[in-house]
Write a structure and sequence with these properties.
Layout: H1 20-25, H2 43-48, H3 54-63, H4 65-68, E1 75-80, H5 87-90, H6 94-103, E2 105-107, E3 118-125, E4 128-137, E5 140-145, E6 148-157, E7 160-165, H7 177-183, H8 188-197, H9 200-203, E8 209-214, H10 216-221, H11 226-231, H12 234-242, E9 245-247, H13 252-258, E10 265-269, E11 275-282, E12 290-296, E13 306-313, E14 316-321
Parallel strand pairs: 1-7, 8-14
Antiparallel strand pairs: 1-2, 3-4, 4-5, 5-6, 6-7, 8-9, 10-11, 11-12, 13-14
Helix pairs in contact: 3-6, 8-12
Amino acid sequence: MRTEKKQINIYGIRSAAIGLAALIVLASCNKNNDKVTNDNNRIAFIVADNSTLSILNQALIHTGGNQLLKQDGPYTLLAPTNSAANIGVLYTTATNLSNVAYYHIIDGILDVNKLPFQFNQEFKSLKGKLYITRYAKGLDTVVSINGSRVLTKNISASNGLLQILYSALTPDTYAKLGDALASDQNTTLFYQAIVTSGMLQTINGAGPYTIFAPDNAAMLTAGYTLDQISKTDPQTLKKLISAHIANDRHFINDYYLIGDLTTSTAKQTMLDGSIINISFLINYSAPDSFGGIELQGASNSNVLDMDEKDIVTDNGVLHTIQGILKP
């Protein structure tokens, strides 16, 4: 097992979105007036003093999170760096900025080295549920939060800990998978097929489930216009939809953890009994990591790429894909 270093050691990944600073300035400042301390080892000061966390620092300043993180706590901050692939995308409005910033703060100490070896253990941040995995992969112990790798673990502060993340986390804003699908303008056709098939109650059940939802372009390519969906036998639609749903909650990084590194593949059984192949796209700039996945159903001649990944809901996780997994 690799020795944990008490310093921030960040892999080189894609730069943050351009123009984020201008968006952050638009956010309203909501500073907490409670008594704070000038102890330079508080979480807020550690973030402010580290140039690789400057975007996160601005988000905390403009939402009052930095004032909270100067207090006694203890708190745990889940800290995406400036190079986190999606950090700029999430900070788009004042409301999003606040939700995202506080979603990365846990009230209390989260020592990830003390967690059991288990997938997707449920915790709560100040803005919703989190799902944390600790898993032995080769000679290393990997921790991920909502599928985002923890790159540097348990950085000590006088009022808590910092966990440095590979990517920023998207807040848990949906109670059900159906809500997440209905709110995405890119999955309206697949959602309508679910409604017409009578499977909405299923995906809104206790679960958890994982859904690979074809985007609208994929549905149209397969001939599924709104009119055609309304004319298709519900049982035919149910079979199609079942080929895109799996039991349990699976973030993309979960497949990498359980997959075969020799072949860079994993397999997933779907509700209809079909098995899809999942191929990892190796990220050569980040050792022991990957840059994404491709899917291939048993009846697909080509692999399918992804649009979005790791959309969290209370009863599962949603991914959107650029094709249909043929049943």
